[in-house]
Amino acid sequence: MQGISQLKTQRLRLRQWQDSDLEPFADMNADEEVMKFFPFTYDREETRQAIQKYSEPITENCWGFWAAQRLEDCAFVGIIGLHRVDDLPMVDSVEVGWRLARTCWGLGYATEGACAWRAKLAASQSGHILVQRLPRYRQKFPALKGPRRVWAKRACTLQDCQAAISRPPQTVN
């Protein structure tokens, strides 16, 4: 299957994980404020396992939680991508998700990355908007107001995502 190898925005590159991502991702996952709504912070080994877990669906399906890198200086800023939701009554639902280093909060990176995914998926589906940020986190995450605005009221299926990402590689501007 041909698929996208990265998504590029005005300021970000969303891409497959690299060995060099381990240290900045481990620092981010050790930050109690970043991990405030997670059950616990991650140590270096748990972060390494998370990278492996996030890499597998990208390799298999060309989508998942991708590493987000700032184009200006190639710095790792966090993760932005698609995630299969299996804890809701909807079958085969997919949501967009993100976790950014605290130094990158409030800069619009989550919105920019979410818009890149929305543009890729919507264009591939003849204008259908496929992904919705799920409302269960709205009370917990004040930062959702920006990214939340980019989604419609309909969730996509895994088949929609597979069809969308099976197009030739492209850059989203």
Mean pLDDT: 75
| H/E element order | EEHHEEEHHEH
In the predicted model, the low-confidence regions spanning at least 5 consecutive residues are 126-173
Helical residue percent band = 25-40%
CATH fold node name: Aminopeptidase
Number of helices: 5
Q: What's the number of extended β-strand segments? A: 6
CATH class: Alpha Beta
Describe the structure.
The protein has one domain: Aminopeptidase (3-Layer(aba) Sandwich), CATH 3.40.630. It has 5 helices and 6 strands, in the order ββααβββααβα. It has helices at residues 22-30, 44-61, 109-124, 145-148, 158-165, and strands spanning 6-8, 12-15, 65-70, 76-85, 93-100, 156-157. Strands 1-2-3-4-5-6 form a 6-stranded antiparallel β-sheet, sandwiched between helices. The longest helix has 18 residues, at 44-61. 32% of the residues are buried. The model is unreliable at 126-173 (pLDDT under 50).
What distinguishing features does this structure have?
single chain, 173 residues, alpha+beta, Aminopeptidase, 5 helices, disordered C terminus
Compact description:
It is built from five helices and six strands, in the order ββααβββααβα.
What's the structural blueprint in terms of helices and strands?
Layout: E1 6-8, E2 12-15, H1 22-30, H2 44-61, E3 65-70, E4 76-85, E5 93-100, H3 109-124, H4 145-148, E6 156-157, H5 158-165
Antiparallel strand pairs: 1-2, 2-3, 3-4, 4-5, 5-6
Helix pairs in contact: 1-2, 3-5
